[in-house]
Amino acid sequence: MINVAVVGAGYWGPNLVRNFIACPDTHLTAICDKDSDRLAQVIAPYPGVEPIDDFNALINRDDIDAVAIATPVGTHGPLAVAAMKAGKHVLVEKPLAASVSEAAAMVRVAADTRRVLMVDHTFLYGSPVRKMKELISTGELGDIYFIDSVRINLGLFQHDVNVVWDLAPHDLSIMDHLLGRLPKSLSVFGSCHIGSRTELEDVAYMNLDFGDGLMASFHVNWLSPVKVRHFIVGGSKKSIVFNDLESAEKIKVYDRGVTLSQDVEARRDVLVGYRTGDVWSPHLDTSEPLQTMVRHFAECIQTGKQPISDGESGLRIVKILEAAQRSIKAQGGRITL
What we know:
Blueprint: E1 2-7, H1 13-22, E2 26-32, H2 36-43, E3 50-52, H3 55-59, E4 66-69, H4 73-85, E5 89-93, H5 100-113, E6 117-120, H6 127-137, E7 144-154, H7 163-179, E8 185-191, E9 203-211, E10 214-221, E11 223-235, E12 239-243, E13 251-260, H8 264-267, E14 272-280, H9 289-303, H10 311-329, E15 335-336
Parallel strand pairs: 1-2, 1-4, 2-3, 4-5, 5-6, 7-10
Antiparallel strand pairs: 7-11, 8-9, 8-15, 9-10, 11-12, 12-13, 13-14
C-alpha cells in the first residue's frame, strides 16, 4: 500500500480524496489545508484520515510516500519541489505550474530525486480519449488535418488564472496526447468582460499551427449561457467527434470527407467529390477516469513506469499556456514556440 496525503481541500481536493480512498493500492493517510473549517468539512466522512495544517511537517513524515497537490496554480511549483526533495512522489492538479521556468525546475528535480512527477490531466485516462488515440495510431483517420475544440460554460470564475489557464489545459492535453508534439506557433485573442480590462480574460480563441497544413482551434469561455464540450479531430479518411456531455455515445467516428478527382483534366477544374459513409460509435468502458488515473499513479510508483501524463507532458502544456498569455497581451500576435 502506498501512503498518500492530499494537499488542498478546495474544489478538486475532495475528488482526489474520494478516489485515493477507493483505490486498492493506496492508503489515504492525511489531508492538508490551512483552512481548518474547510478541512474539517472534507475530512468528516473519513474518520481514519488525519487532518494536518502544516505542509512542511507533512512532507517530512516517514509514513507518507506520496502527495497529491490540489492548490492554487501559483503554489504548484514550490510545493511539488519541496515534496520531491523530501522524498515524496507527486501528483499535481493541472496545469503543472504557473510558468515554464517553474515547470522545468519541477521536471529537473523529479529526475534528480528519481521521484514520480505526474500531472492530473484526467481526460487522458478516460476511455473516449484512449479510443481516439487508438484510432489515430492505427491509421484509421489517415492524415490529421485539423483539431477543433469548444469548452464553454457559465462559470466557474477563477481568481488566480484566466479562462485559458483554467479550461484550455483539458483540451490541450488531449491534443498533445494525440499528436505528441508542440505546435510551431500560436495566436490567441482574449478579452475580459467582468471587471476592468486589466482583470482576467473570461473569453478566448486560440489558433495553433503545427505546419504541413495541420491546425488546431480552441474556444474557451466562462460566459456562455450553455455548456458545450466538443472536441473534433478531422482526418483525410475519417473524423472523430468527442462530445463529453453525451451519456451513452461520447465519441462518434464519421466516414465522411472529400476526395479530389485523380483525372488530370478534371483536376484543372478542381473537381471535388463528397464521400458520405457510415457513422459509428465504438463501445467504451464506463470506468471513472480519475480512478484510472489514481491507479496509474500508484502503478508508476510501484514499478517505475513512466506516467502517461508525466512532467514533460505537463511542461509542454505550460509552454503553450505561457505563449498564449504573451499572444493575448500582444492583441493576438503570433508567437513562435
